[in-house]
Amino acid sequence: MKHAIFALSLIPAAAAADPITFAWTPNPQTPQVDVALADGYFEEAGLEVALVNFASGREAFEALLGGQVDIAFMAEFPAATGALTGQDFAIVADLTRYTGSRIIGNSDQSPLDSLSDLDGKRIGTTLGTNVDYFLSTALTEAGVSAEVINAAPGDLVPALVRGDVDAIVPFPTFYQGAKDALGARYLELRPGSYEPHYILAASPDMLARDADLTAFLGALVRADADVAADPAMAADRVSASLSGNVSVETLQGMWADMEFGTVLAPDLPELLASEAAWIVGQGVIRAEVPTTADIAAILAPGPLAAAAPEVVTLD
């Protein structure tokens, strides 16, 4: 498990005038949120945080754009779409980077030793999402042509088990299910061409509450240090928030592919610019292809830099 330990610049916080409405659902990717909630770090920062659950990060982002929440947790891909369509929001933190993106195969269908094994094969994924971007980028970089078949996230593993497709690129939450369903037939390939980032976006109204936002992010940076110092404790916190549905042992295995730490670094706007260019190239949105500098304009590093300047390394 990769961790970054950062020192926190402690900033006294007055009691917040209004609650911060935070679109976040318990998940394996953000242990610093679980620790901050369980150990009262938001309250100690003078904040009242009201959690609102959504089925997906995309729905949380839509709620943010609609003014229903102040801060939304999501993977980075919807932000690329939001930037292209001129939505009013800002990215204020990058909580976790996932290094385990993979293509999953069925040994009954085809070998999966390299991307070339996918040439001419049928690959299932969910079009218009970050896993579609991952697959498209990996195939293009390898010069491989395949038949990409659209399927809902929950239909991909059954399709691979039945042999309807030769490989799938699902969301990471389905990896373990694929391994369990396929057993000895399970194959995987990790091209290393895409690392999802799990980010926080803020509304314009929340950005105007800069002291509260700084205190909120400071509480997460404080929790980062706890996660790094005691990952077993952090896994206990996350497993409890998931009602025990994901065991501590399973979490620790998943975390081998996660880099935790609340940061803002140059790799995020670079990735978003690449995704935005891909979206335009797919004809999904008609827009000018943005530069990395254009995308960087949707990042608001000030509040995080005020809480912990050393974790903001944007150029």
Automatic annotation (TrEMBL):
<dbReference type="Pfam" id="PF09084">
    <property type="entry name" value="NMT1"/>
</dbReference>
<feature type="signal peptide">
    <location>
        <begin position="1"/>
        <end position="17"/>
    </location>
</feature>
<feature type="domain" description="SsuA/THI5-like">
    <location>
        <begin position="33"/>
        <end position="233"/>
    </location>
</feature>
<protein>
    <submittedName>
        <fullName>NitT/TauT family transport system substrate-binding protein</fullName>
    </submittedName>
</protein>
<keyword id="KW-0732">Signal</keyword>
<dbReference type="InterPro" id="IPR015168">
    <property type="entry name" value="SsuA/THI5"/>
</dbReference>
